[in-house]
Amino acid sequence: MNLTDKQILEIAENLESGMRVYYNLKTGEIKSIINFDTWVGGDEELWKEELNEINEHSDDYLEFEGFSSNQSFQIMVDFAESINEPHLMNKLFKALDRPKPFQNFKWEIDNSVEYRQMWFDFKRIRFIERVKEQIEMYNLRLDE
């Protein structure tokens, strides 16, 4: 089964938005469902059909995994290190060094119009790389 760039991007985007992403080895279909571990109050009834399909045919599916909190924190550090503007770099590192680093980092990025899109692009690239690493780990093929 080959994964296209479009499928890789779809998987990466869904992981980035906090979904659980499954790939059907037989059909190549991608199923994304809400991550009930992180989305408190999510309605399982809305996802019942997908959950049943995945559970009943679990051998047919691979689950792609997003980043842990530590890995996500490291991505923010890496981005801060890549910034060429010393003032913003300093603000980002201070944000990461305080309590609630994710919230503080987001606030600094959201208030930096020039670097906001750069952050989104940087993070997206990391998610795509993560998906490709898992494809390699699972010995799947890329459609090149």
Task: Summarize the structure in short.
This protein has 144 residues and is an alpha+beta fold.
Helices, by number, come to: 6
Average pLDDT, rounded to a whole number, is 91
Order of secondary-structure elements: EHEEHEHHHHE
Low-confidence stretches: none
Helix % is: 55-70%
Distance between the amino and carboxyl termini: 12 Å
Largest sheet: 3 strands, antiparallel
- Decide which structural class fits the backbone: alpha+beta
What is the number of independent domains? Answer: 2
Task: Describe what this molecule looks like in 3D.
With 144 residues, this protein is α+β, with helices and mostly antiparallel strands. The protein has 2 domains: 2-66 and 129-142, no CATH class; 69-127, no CATH class. Helix content is 57%, strand content 13%. The strands form 2 sheets. The chain has a 3-stranded antiparallel beta sheet with strand order 3-2-4, with helices on both faces. The chain has a two-stranded parallel sheet with strand order 1-5. It starts with a strand and ends with a strand. The model has no long low-confidence stretch (mean pLDDT 91).
